[in-house]
Design brief:
Layout lengths: L1 H4 L6 H35 L2 H49 L3 H7 L1 H43 L1 H48 L1 H6 L3 H53 L5 H42 L19 E3 L2 E3 L3 H10 L5 E8 L9 E8 L4 E6 L5 H6 L9 E6 L2 E2 L5 H6 L1 E4 L8 E2 H6 L9 H10 L3 H5 L8 E2 L8 H13 L5 E5 L7 H14 L4 E5 L3 H4 L4 E6 L2 E6 L1 H7 L1 H10 L8
Parallel strand pairs: 5-12, 5-13, 8-11, 11-12
Antiparallel strand pairs: 1-2, 3-4, 3-6, 6-7, 9-10, 13-14
Length: 602
């Protein structure tokens, strides 16, 4: 928790302001009972109306100051906590942006959503309470004890004897609730996971009439969370009545002992009234402490979960580029050549005429016993189409995911323009790649905005948007939409068919004008006629670039200059179609399962 609170440094002026106004409010509240005591013991007893009016006016003025200080302090603390929560959300989001896919798999998407929303809200609520109650409580507590002793030391000692009992109660409740809150947040993650899975899979669930089963799953998670919440809230609900009971019993004892002292002329009525108010302030400060302890366990669990995200060291990092002093540059005639890898990276970015090379690449998923791909070596050159084909689970998509460094290779290296991709910043590497994923993902917005998403400037002209849409064979269905390129696309493209989403994903990649195109089974939802037109249009668009195509259809890869056949994560064949038909049994089996015998050797 303290680690997160260090991020409050930018708000130091607001913190000072809150402390000053809370201090002013506490002093005002501590001063009022003494004034009231004077009104009773001096003004009422002696019948001094002028004195009563004078002190009464002073009390009104001090009460106004306390009110103004309270309002201002509340405003500053609220503004501070909201800004702090905003900064935490930004920090968590920025950190998550640097996660590799492996990091995402470890933390879980559902848990990350809860941590960014619910957990940070808990921290925000605690921050408000911290700067309002936690600052005010010790001031009232210490000030109240001092003022109580000034009125009557014997009654003050009675009051002090009650404090250890209350402290033990608060400690017990805080200790017991910590583990319950921790379990509660985990169950919030689980409930969020079940709900998100239900909403994402609603079509399949309804198609298979599994609504009752999903309702049972939801009810199980929901009641599990409810049971834990009931336990912790019952515990917290008991705290306040116990505190109030002890407070009231203490006040009864004070009145009883105070009345005896008044009867013996040891104490005045006004002093007893003031003492009761100071006792109430002391007990109220302890109640404020107890409220802090109610909130603190849950906020502490939330802080731990947020710190877990912020402390993650991403498994994939950009290279550390050394700063080479001017005098260490080498002279080569009139040119200065730096060994700084940043210049190599710049050349890699600008030179799209190089090639992609896999050099004995192997990759194993975390906690997996076997390699997903093993000892992969091949080269892909500009102007050529390299196709990858294989049975389900052969490692095709895994191989493709290694190029943009969604995962880092376990062994071997991947080179672009003879530079290891681990020596290129991720931003620069991704600038070179146009990816059309296996599962097309669209975003809420217009058709034009989704196509422009492929270009970092997001300022593509309408003519360029239409051109790439025509190449992707998407122009016809877009123009039939109510608002054409300004038509609205629902989250995830739910208002489009699978083929329409694939074609928009292809148009988005084309708008990027990258050096390397990766089509990950991107034509699977297209009919043969549309796919044929698309491949024909793509020839001119991608003729000077590196093109990698993963496909299940043999007709998609037959025209490729190089076909890589994968089986169980290894290359079992490489070459053009007519060569593989003769040399690769695996490829021949794939082709024969899709084409007639006569078409095998066409």
């Amino acid at each position: 928790m303290l680690k997160l609170l260090k991020n409050l440094k930018p708000y130091w002026l607001s913190i000072i302001g809150v402390i000053l106004f809370v201090f002013l409010q506490a002093i005002s509240e501590l001063f009022l009972p003494t004034l009231m005591s004077n009104v009773v013991d001096i003004g009422v007893v002696n019948g001094g109306i002028n004195y009563i009016l004078k002190i009464g006016g002073m009390m009104l003025f001090i009460a106004f100051i306390a009110m103004a200080a309270s309002i201002t302090g509340s405003y500053l603390s609220s503004r501070l906590s909201i800004g702090f929560a905003r900064d935490l959300r930004t920090m968590v989001f920025t950190k998550v942006e640097s996660f590799s896919l492996e990091d995402f798999n470890e933390k879980g998407t559902d848990s990350l959503i809860v941590r960014t929303t619910n957990d940070i809200t808990q921290i925000q609520q605690l921050t408000v309470t911290l700067f309002r109650m936690f600052l005010r409580a010790p001031m009232l507590f210490i000030g109240g004890i001092i003022m109580a002793f000034s009125k009557n030391a014997q009654l003050a000692f009675l009051l002090m004897s009650i404090l250890p009992i209350l402290s033990i109660i608060i400690y017990f409740v805080a200790k017991k609730s910590m583990s319950l809150f921790q379990a509660m947040q985990i169950k919030v993650d689980k409930l969020n996971s079940v709900l998100r899975e239900y909403l994402d899979g609603i079509r399949v669930i309804r198609a298979f009439n599994r609504e009752d089963y999903e309702k049972e799953r939801f009810d199980k998670s929901n009641f599990d969370l409810t049971g834990t919440a009931r336990k912790v809230n019952t515990l917290m609900a008991l705290l306040m009545p116990v505190m109030i009971l002890v407070l009231n019993l203490t006040i009864v004892a004070i009145f009883w002992l105070g009345s005896i002292r008044i009867g013996s002329d040891i104490m005045q009525v006004g002093d007893l009234m003031a003492f009761v108010q100071y006792a109430s302030q002391i007990m109220f400060s302890l109640i404020m402490f107890s409220m802090m302890f109610v909130m603190f366990p849950r906020a502490s669990v939330s802080a731990m979960r947020i710190n877990e995200v912020l402390n993650v060291e991403p498994k994939i990092n950009d290279p550390v580029i050394p700063l080479i002093p001017e005098q260490t540059l080498l002279e080569d005639g009139s040119e200065k050549i730096s060994r700084n890898i940043a210049l190599q990276e710049t050349r890699a970015e600008k030179n799209g005429k190089g090639h992609l090379k896999f050099d004995k690449v192997s990759f194993c998923y975390q906690n997996a016993k076997e390699y997903a791909v093993c000892d992969i070596s091949f080269q892909a050159r500009p102007g050529e189409i390299t196709a990858i084909i294989g049975s389900t689970g052969s490692g095709k998509s895994t191989l493709i995911n290694l190029i943009p460094r969604f995962y880092d290779v376990t062994r071997g290296s991947i080179l672009i323009n003879n530079i290891d991709i681990r020596d290129i910043s991720q931003e620069s590497l991704h600038e070179m790649i146009g990816l059309v994923p296996q599962k097309p993902t669209l975003f809420t917005g217009t058709v034009a905005e989704n196509i422009s998403f492929g270009n970092n400037s997001n300022q593509l002209s309408r003519e360029e948007i239409k051109r790439v849409a025509e190449v992707a064979q998407a122009a016809r269905f877009i123009e039939r939409m109510p608002d054409g390129y300004d038509s609205f696309i629902a989250q995830g493209g739910r208002n489009l068919s699978g083929g329409e989403k694939q074609r928009l994903s292809i148009a988005r990649a084309l708008a990027r004008h990258p050096d390397i195109y990766i089509f990950d089974d991107s034509f699977s939802a297209l009919d043969f006629k549309t796919e044929s037109r698309l491949r024909e249009a793509l020839k001119y668009e991608i003729k000077d670039t590196i093109v990698l195509i993963i496909a299940q259809r043999v007709t998609t890869v037959m025209g490729a200059e190089q076909i890589i056949v994968l089986d169980k994560g290894r290359i079992v064949g490489i070459g053009p179609h007519h060569t593989l038909i003769q040399t690769s049994e695996v490829y021949r089996e794939i082709v024969s399962s899709q084409l007639s015998e006569e078409a095998l050797y066409e």
